[in-house]
């Protein structure tokens, strides 16, 4: 954690935030404050980086995070159908987490899978060319 840091500098910031996000599924306010002190940065600078990247979150997330691409290629390939299917299956809207903490659902910018649109990331797994039936099977595969 931040108290173990011996080298200061901005070049470590993103990797520290990514590691914290992997450990705790979000970046806490306390971690942001400790990291700012450890690196000699302002809290607003660390907060700005933590909230800039769509794969990082300052809000606790579920065990499995669904990220549906909202960019133009996916939109043209019916990404709204993906969103509606997930909403129907899980009973949550984008930005929400299921009451049991199993899934969080987010809309995100390009996930680099335009050739497989409509696509989504479930944790670090890419799922493309989605249909409602395929989405249901994918969701069932994640405990």
List how many beta strands DSSP finds.
Answer: 5
Proportion of residues in extended strands: 5-15%
Strand-pairing-aware structural class: alpha+beta
Largest sheet composition: 5 strands, mixed
Separation of the first and last Cα atoms: 29 Å
User: How are the strands of the largest sheet arranged?
Assistant: 2-3-1-4-5
Spell out the helices and strands N to C: HHHEHHEEEEH
> What is the share of helical residues?
40-55%
How many H/I helical runs? 6
Q: Compute the CA-based radius of gyration.
A: 17 Å
Which blocks of ≥5 consecutive residues have pLDDT under 50? 3-7
The dominant shape is elongated
Provide mean pLDDT, rounded.
89
Characterise this structure.
The chain has 143 residues and is of the alpha+beta class. The chain is built from six helices and five strands, in the order αααβααββββα. β2 and β3 form a beta hairpin. The radius of gyration is 17 Å and the shape is elongated. Mean pLDDT is 89; it is low at 3-7.
Question: Features of this protein?
Answer:
143 residues; five-stranded mixed beta sheet; disordered N terminus; single chain; 5 strands; alpha+beta
List the helices and strands and how they pair.
Layout: H1 13-24, H2 29-39, H3 43-52, E1 64-69, H4 72-76, H5 79-90, E2 96-97, E3 103-108, E4 120-122, E5 125-127, H6 132-140
Parallel strand pairs: 1-3
Antiparallel strand pairs: 1-4, 2-3, 4-5
Helix pairs in contact: 1-2, 2-3
């Amino acid at each position: 954690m931040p108290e173990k840091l011996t080298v200061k500098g901005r070049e470590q910031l993103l990797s520290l935030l990514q590691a914290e996000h992997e450990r705790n599924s979000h970046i806490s306010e306390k971690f942001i404050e400790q990291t700012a002190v450890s690196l000699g940065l302002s809290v607003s600078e660390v907060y700005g980086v933590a909230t800039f990247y769509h794969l990082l979150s300052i809000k606790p997330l579920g065990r499995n995070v669904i990220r549906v691409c909202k960019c133009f290629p996916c939109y043209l390939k019916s990404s709204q159908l993906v969103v509606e299917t997930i909403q129907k299956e899980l009973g949550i809207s984008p930005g929400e987490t299921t009451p049991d903490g199993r899934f969080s659902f987010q809309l995100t910018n390009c996930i680099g899978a335009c050739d497989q649109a409509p696509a989504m990331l479930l944790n670090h797994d890419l799922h493309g060319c989605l249909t409602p039936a395929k989405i249901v099977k994918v969701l069932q595969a994640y405990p």
